[in-house]
Amino acid sequence: MDYFKEAFGGFHPLFDQDAALKLALDVIFADHRLDDLISVISFEERVAGIGGEPGWIIEHREEFDEGWPQGSTFRSFVEPEVYPMENPEFYCDDKTFRRYVEAIANVYEVRHPERKQDLDRLKAALSGL
To answer: Which domain of life is it from (predicted)?
Structure first.
């Protein structure tokens, strides 16, 4: 299901710096993988991740990691050979990630009111960021 327009104002893989995150979140919500997303947000290990087709991943790290931009705790990546994008990798901090997830969750909530319990759990996990 396409949440891009309502959640993010559109999706332009050849221009958007955040296209990798938008694509990954769209797939997660379209496939109703909220439990997986909650697990990544509220992990107990040092590193957590979720991935899928077409060749995307979201990673979460609590501590600064060499090779990651300072202050970044989330990384999204899409295999450019599988899904061409100008910026196949996007890093962000907790606050930015939360903003993106909340934007798409708001659209999802309107389209899937039957998933209210899952969304409540997601919102609780986000409040811990």
So the answer is: Bacteria
